[in-house]
Amino acid sequence: MEKTHRVKLLQIFLVFLFTSTLLFSAVNRLQNVEIVKGELRLKFTGTCEKKEIKQFTLSKPYRRVFDLKNTRLSYNGLGKKFNNTVRIAQYKPNTVRIVIQNDKPYSCTPYKPLFTKTVYHIPLPKSSSVLPAKRYKKPKVKPKKSRPKAKATRSHKSELIVIDAGHGGHDSGAIGGGKREKDLVLQISKRLEKQLKKRGHPVYMTRKKDRFLKLPQRTKIADKKNAVLFISIHANSVPKKKRNKIQGVETFFLQKTRDARSQRIAARENKSVLKGTNKLSRSVILDSVLSGPKIVQSNKLAIDVQRKIMTNLRSRYRGVKDGGVRHAPFWVLVGASRPSILVEVGYISHPKERKRLFTPRYQELIAKGIAEGVDSYLNNRKKEIDF
C-alpha cells in the first residue's frame, strides 16, 4: 500500500514537472531591440510567431501599439534603450508592449526576414526621430587634466532679445475679414514676451501699443540695446481669388531671392517704408548687409524657430501648413547687426487660419514655439562657441 502511494506521488510530480516545463517553454524572450535602416528589429530567444503579435492604433497623440503575446523581456533595461518616441515595457506578465509615437496617423507592415525564425522587423515612420536614450549607457569617465580656470562668461539667459511687432499706427498691415495684422502681431508679441521672460530671457519690445515706427528705428533699437537676437512678427495675406488656397506659417531670414512668392511677400511688407528710395540705393544697402556673418546664424535661428512652432501647433490643431524657412530682402532686417528673423505667423486672408490666429490658444502655441526655438538656437550656439 505504501509502495503504491509512493508511485502515485511520483506520477503527480512528473506530470507537474512536465506541465511546468511546457508552460515555461511556451513563453518567448525578447532578447534585444535595435534600430537599423529605419526599422525596429526585434531579436527573440525562441521562434517568433506572427500570430502572437497584435497591433492597433491609438490617437491624441498618434501611437502604433504592438502587443507581443507569450513574451517576456530578457532584462528590465531593455525598455530604456530609446527616447519617448519608442517605448517598450512588460505590459502584462506574459505580454510585452511596444508603442511607437508619431505626429500623424501611421501604419506599417511588419515582417519576418526570409530564413529566420527568431527575428521580427517593424518599419518606423519616416518622420520619426527615434534615438537611443542618452541616460541608458553611462560613458566611462576619464580623469580630467588640470586646466587653467577660464574667465566667467555670461549665460545666454542674461542676453537681451528684441521683439518687433510689425506695422502699427496708420500702417495697419494686412486686413482680412475685418481683422488687422497690426493688432494680431502685437497680441502674439506680448505672449512671446511672457514666454521668453518665463525662461529667464530679458526682453525689449519695439512697440507695446498701437504706434508706427520706421524700419530703421526698429533695428536701431536692437543695436542700441545690444540685443543678442531680433525677432519681427508679421502675418501674411494674398488676393481674394487665392484666399481659400494659401495658408501656413513661414519664417524668413534676410537674403536676396529669385523666388517669386518670397519677393511678393517682401514687397508687401516693405511697401509702407520704402517710399522715396530709388532702386540703386536699395541695392547698395542690401549688398553691404548680405555679405555679413550674421546671415548664416539667422538661417539657423529661423530653422529652429520654424520647427518648434510647427511642433506646438500640430500638437493641438490639424492641417496646419508648414511654409518652411525662406529668405527674402525684408527691410526690417536690413539694419540688424545680429541674428534676425521675420516670422509670418499665418495668412490673415485665409478664413479658417484667420479664425485660429485670433484665438488665445493658437497664439499661445505660436509664442511658445518661437520661445522654444530661441532656446534651442542659443543652446546650440553656446555649444559651438564652447567647442
Present the secondary structure layout.
Blueprint lengths: L1 H25 L1 E9 L2 E6 L8 E6 L3 E8 L1 E3 L12 E7 L2 E8 L16 E5 L37 E5 L9 E2 L2 E2 H18 L4 E3 L9 H10 L4 E8 L12 E6 L5 H11 L8 H12 L3 H21 L7 E7 L2 H4 L5 E8 L3 H7 L2 H27 L1
Parallel strand pairs: 1-5, 9-12, 9-13, 13-16, 14-15
Antiparallel strand pairs: 1-2, 2-8, 3-4, 4-7, 6-7, 10-11, 14-16
Q: Which H/E pattern describes the elements?
A: HEEEEEEEEEEEHEHEEHHHEHEHH
The CATH architecture designation of the largest domain is: 3-Layer(aba) Sandwich
CATH fold assignment of the largest domain? Aminopeptidase
| Rg on CA atoms, Å | 29 Å
The CATH homology group name of the largest domain: Zn-dependent exopeptidases
The best one-word shape is elongated
Q: What is the total number of structural domains?
A: 2
Characterize the structure shown.
This protein has 387 residues and is α/β, with parallel strands linked by helices. It has 2 domains: 27-123, Immunoglobulin-like; 156-386, Aminopeptidase, CATH 3.40.630. Helix content is 35%, strand content 24%. The protein is built from 9 helices and 16 strands. The chain has a 6-stranded mixed sheet, with helices on both faces. Helix 2 (181-198) crosses helix 9 and helix 6 packs across helix 9. The longest helix is centred in the last third of the chain and has 27 residues, at 360-386. The chain is elongated, with a radius of gyration of 29 Å. It starts with a helix and ends with a helix. Residues 15-25, 133-139, 149-154 and 272-293 have low confidence and may be disordered.
